[in-house]
């Protein structure tokens, strides 16, 4: 493994993001752990360094586009390229799963984090990814963003997971995956969406059956795809999912 392979993981200080950093780092990849809170980010970095993983904290605040440009300048100066971008940061802000009740402000806040900021960061860093010999972009999506699953009354989707803002933002992120992959298909850059599964994290809740370690596996697999691997797809642990 090339010791200078560089990966940026947003929301890397906890949960699935932290485990993605750990698993990629165990493959000898240099990790840029993106987080908005420097203290918490540095604590996570120090833990990974103790495990022998080459890691640096990098300020990436999904609400502040200036941190995207600062990150781009830092990576360009330090490394000259970026091999892997994991758009992992995301959240839920809805206080109701009733589409006729949810406020537009909550939906906008959800889209700002889960969709618009992902596009903005990716566009900012894309010139550096294009300098990689094998660029990989992984958008952390969710099966909740599947139109097929949401439209199927027999899918087993619980009522509390029928969230207009969150589900629609992940569906939009999946569209970004499809179109960006198509636009980059002539380059050695692969773009895919990952469904981590229902994971026991602050976002997923205590009832979720999967650990953060298990939830990180799909994004890591997509980040390490070989040259003949897929692009423009939606996956969970190697299995294609319906859009």
3D architecture notes:
With 243 residues, this protein is of the alpha/beta class. The protein is built from seven helices and eight strands, in the order βαβαβαβαβααβαββ. It has an eight-stranded mixed β-sheet, with helices on both faces. α3 packs parallel to α4 (104-129). It is globular. The mean pLDDT is 93.
Instruction: Tell how many strands the DSSP assignment holds.
Output: 8
% residues in beta strands: 5-15%
Residue-averaged pLDDT: 93
Percentage of helical residues?
40-55%
Helix count, DSSP H or I runs of 4 or more residues: 7
Q: What is the alpha-carbon Rg in Å?
A: 17 Å
Q: Tell me, briefly, the overall form.
A: globular
Strand order of the largest sheet: 3-2-1-4-5-6-7-8
Based on secondary structure, the structural category is: alpha/beta
Low-confidence segments, ≥5 residues, pLDDT <50? none
Spatial gap, N to C terminus: 33 Å
Largest sheet: 8 strands, mixed
What string, H for helix and E for strand, traces the elements in order?
EHEHEHEHEHHEHEE
Task: Provide keyphrases for this structure.
243 residues, alpha/beta, 8-stranded mixed beta sheet, 8 strands, globular
